[in-house]
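mind reviewing this stuff:

——
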Amino acid sequence: MNTATLPLSAAQSAKRDIQTISLIGLAHGTSHFFHMLLPPLFPVFMREFGLSYSELGLLVSIFFVISGVGQALSGFLVDRTGARPILFLALGCFVLASVAAGTAHGFSGLALAAALAGLGNSPFHPVDFTILNKRVSQARLGHAFSVHGITGNIGWAFAPVLLLWIYEGTGGNWRLGYAATAAWALFVIALLALQRDAIDDSQGAWGHEKAGAAAPVHEHPMAFLKLPSVWLCFSFFFFTTSALSSIQSFASPALNAMYGLDLTVTKWVVTGYMVCGAIGMVLGGFLVARSQNLERNIAWAMTGAAVLLALTGTGWLPAGMALVAAALAGFGTGLAGPSRDMLIKKAAPPGATGRVYGTVYSGLDTGFAVAAPIFGALMDRQWNNAVFIGASLALLMGIGAASLVRKVPKG
């Protein structure tokens, strides 16, 4: 008898959900960790390889162009072949990216590392959300999205700490840091392989596949692209991650130039932004469970973040307060995170979730790819406040896109 088909007790269901959520959270945190494979050491690369801010921004674009194109395509692959094997291939690319970064001797070597890391990053959102939506109980799905977002922020926050700690602790041996990132990716691969049954999406079912539910209407695989809600969600990601790109890549040197804060202090602004974002996401998971108006959640939370970033960009604040304000803005974007992910779930037609998440989340990659060289060029012109003012305006544009999702047809 196939015990996989037997109904689970409440305790068994909770245990299974927690295991799946934890493993996917670890994998997602690792993908975000590798977003930051190169940016924490940008000042080192400028000094050792003679690179400009514009060239550093181009490295970010290489990562996210490859990730964005790959993410849109990988959604189709996940829907066709399943998520789990693609997850392992993605993690393997992170190992190769670490090797390329650790052996780089100029822009071309760093570009190869960025390309490999972008390729590895590309399938994560279609993979993660396919596994979560198929294996996690509906009652815990909002919290699953919250944990998913939290671990992403932790990954973003941890990478600068690890790489700079190794760099400073070894007297400037930045290459050793990339040996550590490769080791981390290998550890995650090994752990997921040992617990592979918990991330097996073939053992779960979409809501429309469950007994008694109506069968989905079979449409052309590209039919979802005609839905305005999909493109509004894409636009939301484009604008909000353009803001994030400016903070991740250039907030530290911008604060240094505007307020005279030492780089050893300003380097913590990204970590602070991500930690505040993680705290916001914890609360955001409960907010989703108690609220039916996801667009309003997003609007209030992100407006607060936009105000804090705009104040930082004015240059009016005392130096220490500017650092705190920029970091606290992460709380607002984090609070909106679970509402954002649930909004996309509601915009996805049955049976096309992998494709929808792949397409929508490619807006994230597009935002990073477009924004990084633009903000880098502004920094080269010493328009340092544009990092924060531009991020604030981008968040407001994202709010506008999210507010329209409820008003357009979903299918």
Observations:
- Residues 228-259 form the longest helix (32 residues).
- DSSP finds 15 helices and no strands in the chain.
- The mean pLDDT is 84.
